[in-house]
Write a structure and sequence with these properties.
Layout lengths: L1 H10 L9 E6 L3 H9 L1 E4 L14 E2 L5 H11 L9 H8 L5 H16 L3 E5 L6 H7 L6 E6 L10 E3 L1 E3 L4 E2 L8 H6 L1 E3 L8 E5 L3 E4 L5 E6 L5 H12 L8 E7 L6 E6 L1
Parallel strand pairs: 3-8, 7-9, 12-13
Antiparallel strand pairs: 1-5, 2-11, 4-10, 5-12, 6-10, 13-14
Length: 263
């Protein structure tokens, strides 16, 4: 499955967005400074995200014994048969035990997902819930990126799909949609995020073209000392001379944020 997932990743295209601009809400921490100092963004194990339902799915194991046997032959899982009780069970029942097959496919899916890296972005800079949830209660920062400056880094870029129930996934019959089923579905409780995900084959820090970073927005409660530190860091940088800085403030009438430029 892992090789198949990588093949699908290489063949997929970015989703179409209305604008070249996307936004990343962030606490001010080491990863934020990695972004500002080294032009690197951290890609996390999907199973370490804050939503335990993320990347969960319902395995449809309604496959014939011939299909199950064919899958394990192609995947060459017979090499591990001596040490794997689920595969032993499948062999012992001549591949008729769909529950064992379901458990094994589920374990393989989670193993593959756990090796990929995700980084999450949004479509707006003024989402009140995103500021509250991801910037340490408005004490953090929001980065504006223009992904057109780096088509390599900003690939693969996909919209999250929001559902009431887990996606149903049949590996044998649904191979072409494997990435979408495994990586891009969340509960519709989260649809306010309008999340965009970038998927990498490996986790850790990945470098982007500094020209992608266009603006930095500080939260309503971002401490003045941290604003000054980041302002000096950007103004003294040879990579970020084009970046504009803004400070959020509460609107006097409506539940919305306004942003004043920082000279």
């Amino acid at each position: 499955m892992e090789e198949k997932i990588y093949q699908i990743l290489d063949q997929l295209d970015n989703d179409n967005l209305e604008s070249n601009l996307i936004y990343k809400y962030h606490k001010i921490n080491q990863f934020a400074y990695d972004l500002l100092i080294n032009s690197e963004i951290y890609f996390e194990n999907p199973y370490k995200y804050n939503d335990p339902f993320d990347c969960n799915l319902t395995i449809d194991a309604n496959n014939s014994p011939e299909q199950i046997k064919h899958y394990f032959k192609i995947a060459n899982w017979n090499k591990s048969a001596d040490n794997d009780p689920e595969i032993q069970q499948l062999i012992a029942t001549n591949f008729t035990d769909q529950s064992a097959y379901k458990r094994k496919i589920n374990a393989i899916s989670k193993q593959v997902i756990g090796k990929l890296g995700l980084s999450c972005f949004g479509l707006t800079k003024d989402n009140l819930l995103m500021w509250a949830h991801y910037t340490q209660d408005h004490k953090g920062i929001c980065f504006e990126f223009d992904y057109s400056f780096d088509n390599i880094f900003f690939r693969l870029m996909k919209k999250v799909i929001y559902d009431e129930t887990y996606p149903v996934y049949n590996y044998y019959e649904d191979k072409q949609n494997a990435v979408g089923q495994l990586m891009l579905h969340k509960s519709n409780h989260w649809q306010y995020e309008q999340e965009i995900r970038i998927i990498k084959k490996g986790q850790g820090l990945h470098s982007f073209n500094p020209l992608c970073l266009r603006k930095v927005f500080f939260g309503v409660r971002t401490p003045d000392k941290q604003i000054l530190t980041i302002k000096n860091l950007i103004h003294n940088s040879t990579s970020y001379g084009h970046v504009e800085l803004f400070k959020a403030k509460l609107d006097e009438t409506n539940y919305q944020l306004n942003f004043d430029i920082i000279e």
